[in-house]
Amino acid sequence: MQMPYRRLGRSGLEVSALSFGSWVSFGAQLDKGLARDCMAAAYDGGVNFFDNAESYAGGESERLMGQAIAELGWARHSYVISTKFFWGIHDSPNMRSTLNRKYLLQAIDGSLERLGLDFVDLIFCHRSDPDTPIEETVRACSDIVSSGKALYWGTSEWSADDIRAAWEIAERHHLHKPVMEQPQYNMFERRKVERSYLRLYDDLGLGLTTWSPLASGLLTGKYLGGDVPADSRAALPGYEWLRNSLTSGRYNDQIRALQGIAAELDASLAQLAIAWCAHNPHVSTVITGASRVEQVRENLAALDVLDRLDDTVMARIAEVIG
Asked: Which helix (H) or strand (E) holds 121?
């Protein structure tokens, strides 16, 4: 199946149904050469959206992605790129865990410098900030868009109430409205996408760029034995918090049942999990990650599984995951 492209919410921007993200892998698992090769494989497979964040690897992820794009010589019109702001990379007041105006207007300049770009297509407020008035954040993001340094702005892991509040402030003051949200979404994490945001799709035209379709690797089946493979992100320094959740065995029965469904579809469990996310009509793009070129190609093959997810298969999956 060829890569389908979907509008990002109610905007006119089209993004590939599957996209490529750099969380964890760039800088920790991938050097410049491998990062470039994985991005090239994704791009050749029809991916046009590449997701990043200021805080990933302390800014190194943006630098690696920017260097890869320069070496690959991609025309700027041919890809969509994002970054996200909140956690910060400078350990000083106003620069950590905030969405205040000072931080945001400086953060965008730093990201553009590391990426080697004049503008990014999307910026996300990486978390909500209870200590900064939402209006201040909305005005700063709107100003960034008006300046041409970003084309659209949105949120990541915000509550439905805060998204609606931001949208209504922008509407009231004739500012650029938030267009998209980036929540975690997979078979084991569904609440926000399927319940909390339900009214926002029609009311605001909210688009979704979802992350972690494999639940940090849980939905590959590689943790069924209770061990952590050496090449797993859970084996990386700083990601010890993942280990208990991935090896607890809590989801083992469901994972085995899902493996059976995947086998009947002549697919891997990972491909089934990615295709299941993309099947949701509210999802504009599913962000995938990889540490090897072969993994990129396997993830892209989930598109072939997407066509096989008829009502009967979806009902069987729903019965398994509850």
From this structure: strand 120-125
